[in-house]
Amino acid sequence: MNLLALVKIEWLKIKKYPAFWWMFGIVALTYPGTNMMFYYGYSEGTKGKEVASSVAKMLLGNPFAFPETWHTVAFLSSVFIMIPAILVIMLVTNEYNYKTHRQNIIDGWSRSQFVTSKLFDVLIISLVSTVLYAVVAFGFGAWADYDNIGRWAEQLQYIPLFLLQTFAQLSIAFLLGFLIKKAFIALGIFFFYNLILENIAVAYAKMKLDDIGKFLPFEISDRIIPSPAFMSRFGKDMKAAYEKALDAIPLHIGLTLVLTAAIWAFCYWMHKRRDL
Amino acid sequence: MQEVLNINGISKSYGPIKALQNVSFTVPQGSVFGLLGPNGSGKTTLLSIILDILKADAGSFAWFGHPGSPATRKQIGSLLETPNFYHYLSATDNLKITQAISGRGDNNSIDTALKIVKLYERKNSKFSTYSLGMKQRLAIGAALLGNPDVLLFDEPTNGLDPVGIAEIRELIRELAKQGKTIIMASHLLDEVEKVCTHVAIMKRGTLLTAGPVDEVLANEDIVELGSPDLNALENILQQYQGVTQIKATDHQSLQVFFPIGTASMEAINKHCFEQGVVLNQLTLKKKSLESKFFELTND
Asked: Which residue ranges form the domains of chain B, and what is each CATH number?
């Protein structure tokens, strides 16, 4: 069975799954909504005629103008990884819940084909999220400062970086659903770890443990897209930190690729040998 | 006769529990093969292994002479344990997935399968809205998709009402007539006896017996006799040559057991009459699958 046939079968499963369209709708609202909030904050802070506003405008530039928009919108949107993560976890735990993970094999898939089909689910959801991000980023770039539209093709690397980060983090969500099999437990662990535990661990490691937290599962790929450029304009230390973060991107791309490949290799290995 | 399935020495343990111990048998082409056993005897475990859902600890199996593979599974319409479908999809959409994975049949065959299991009118309803019996029928419909030559049904009549059970029995008979090979696990002995040509009986993971129904059942002749004086009848039969066992029934008669093919009704009748006992009943009985099953599976 070729890969296209696998994708078609996954699409049959997804296209009528209400949670997929809910996720699509929520992401379609959240990405522009969050960025709009920040943009509004920025516009309010810089629109006055007084000196402070002019200084703020000079200092920050316009984070939503081309080409900065690709970076700013990627950073702000990536915070909402939990929305597609819910869908990824539901899609894999549904298979256990409905026992269709068995039926797909009984009907003639190999165990590897089943994992590949799920890999495509994660890839499809990552691509959908990335397309939404790219549309929102382009929209802001065109709207926030039309004069800069000629620079739209700069910093386009944030599109593949956003895709890689989303795919990597959704792969972790998949792994949790794949191993735990129960949606609520997997979601609970994902949220607790992603939103709370790892953030505390990373902050603690920054202060006390020589930033060893950068090797934690989500932080590895979080650092593919560092804080937006305007953050570097608040003094020497911030600038140094920003440049250091930019320099570390290639390392984190490498680490992300290794971790993500390891996750999927483990899933293939595990599914081949276990009882279903 | 060509073999559809060959099971060779399959064992499977869950920790200290031995779910299957060295099970071997073959399923001939064109047979309706009943796999029987009490709950927990290992039927579903065995079927799960031959469908690659569970991994055997030891032993092997071959479908159509080849080791089990996705290609062999695609040729078998299977219902294992429960109907497994996407709850949010309709019957038609679920069967589209079955069809896309198995490569069996086309769009028309989805409608055909749904008509056979009487779900055509509800083909666009979501699976989650179906009753237990309808879910079971959809699972049978999925197995029938594309008219495969081999069918595997694990408790096919689960959740069905008496009419549904009779319909499935008829369907299985019809499929058998078409020359299909049907492997069917069940604990409804009456059902199996009505449709199966072959049986395998399992208990606590061990295969007790397997073969054509007639051979498995008829390993002895059972003669049922009645007389006004049952004590006298029993006394004279105890000396009769070839009798292996005598049992009293609960309706004023005796069951007398002989090695297969040795009971002669005329000779028994003559013997009794000569000994002064007049019979009011004399029948050669076929052992029912139920009695054979209890005999084998009772401790």
From this structure: 3-216 (3.40.50.300), 218-297 (3.30.70.100)
